[in-house]
Amino acid sequence: MKLYQLKAKQALPISKIEAWNFLSDPKNLAVITPDHMGFTILDGADRPMFQGQIIQYIVRPFAGYSTKWVTEITHVKEGEYFVDEQRFGPYALWHHKHFIKEIDGGVEMEDIIDYKIPFGFLGQLAYPLVVKKQLQQIFEYRETKLNELFGKLEGKKNSLELKSI
């Protein structure tokens, strides 16, 4: 079973505190997820983020199919980073690290996601046709939405990379 990795970086002209307050609020995930994903939080987003927090969602990875997704916040360093891991959901593995650091004029947010696709050989066939394209679309939407909400930090290049590791 292959392991994949997504790396995304985005610079925004906001303070570290403002970035942390937005990104560490689980309710804001719905704001930066495309509507067609049918993303709905069921439980666990009623408190500020903490280590051990379980959050349950419904997500529609493609038309006609929705699934429950349960994640746990496994690590939190206030204002610096947090990690969420899938406990139940559409991936065989999902480990998502979120980092925030100050840069000239604002902050740089970095996401590093290590993940595996379920269904063995069939999953590997579907990866380039469905999963990879969908993850690219989700993170491109997220970049656009964050730029709409907070503005764009001029002179800084954002990046998105998906690869096998």
TrEMBL record:
Gene3D superfamilies this protein is in? Answer: 3.30.530.20
Protein name, UniProt field: Cell division inhibitor
Which species is this UniProt entry from?
A: Croceitalea marina
